[in-house]
Amino acid sequence: MMRPDGGIETFHIKNRAQRYAGDMLGLVELRHLRYFLAVSEELHFGRAARALGIQQPPLSQQIRALEDELGVKLFDRSSRRVRLTAAGEALRPAAQRALDAADAARRTAQRAGRGDTGELALGFVGTATLTLLPKLLRSFREHHPDVALTLHEMTTAEQLRALHAGNLDVGLVRPPLPGAETVHCVPLGTERLLAALPVRHPLARERAVAVERLAGEPFVLFPRALGPGLYDQILNHCRSHGVEPAITQEAVQMHTLAALVAAGLGVSIVPSSVSQLHRADVAYRPLSPQARVAHLAAAHRHDNLNPAAHNFAALARRPNFG
To answer: Matching CATH topology for 7-113 and 191-294?
Structure first.
């Protein structure tokens, strides 16, 4: 039965509108919902048009188009006032949720496009933890706190393979990188080469060690395959001064190399960052003549589209990090 005040009919219309509001909104343009919400807020087409910055006739036309699309009447219009119908009342919260969701989706997409969210797989050589990496990570965290970082300590060669395979976004590597045409590599500064000596070695008493005086010494060095660029720089510097290093021991990590030097198994030539290990049983001395090598480089594939990777590389290139 219908009540004299139309209560039953209103009840059915309202529930029907609520039941199908989500389905109907899939057919509606977001601007129509914004127009509808403006009119439902003002309950006056003229004021709503001014708030939207459009003329009243186009606004009225858009509301009618929305009503035609949904197949329901959303407003009761009279010369004295505008009222929401039951369908309009039901649509109002659903329309607001749809606009809020659209705005949230837009913000999410924009943040991901800027590299403010997402994931970043970062590789680094062990000595990066002694210099650049800690302050770089702190700064990246401050600027991009919602990017999920995955860290991998790897040799330069391992990072190159991982970059080519797509398993790393950015690598902090030791340049130069032979055969890395598909990788964009930005050097982040240079550092000196130092002689690493057992603390009781006679040359440890010198303020600087002439390269020629290392001739005949057993050498401890890392395998060339793990860092060919740095390896070749060290050997070329020795050879340019008539020294052919006699490599008797190899170590994968720099801290292991320093430990082997401390044990008296040989001398080495290392980047100055290795001296940050602060071993009392190893003496680090400048070479004479001095030589400088590339410090670190930020490397990523040319075709890497991860915005977080580009943000990280750009941050690493800043002068206070190089």
So the answer is: no
Quick one: tokens of 128? 């990066």
pLDDT over 70 (residue 299): yes
CATH topology of domain 119-188+296-316: D-Maltodextrin-Binding Protein; domain 2 (3.40.190)
Residues 121-158 have pLDDT tens digits of 999 998 888 888 998 999 999 999 999 999 999 988 89
N-term to C-term CA, the chain:
81
Alpha carbons within 13 A on the beta-carbon side of 210: 5
Fold of the CATH domain 191-294: D-Maltodextrin-Binding Protein; domain 2 (3.40.190)
What contacts 227, CB < 8 A, 6 or more positions away? 125, 155, 156, 157, 174
pTM over cut 0.85:
no
**What does the pLDDT average to over 288-293?**
88
Architecture of domain 7-113: Orthogonal Bundle (1.10)
C-alpha 29: how far from chain center: 34
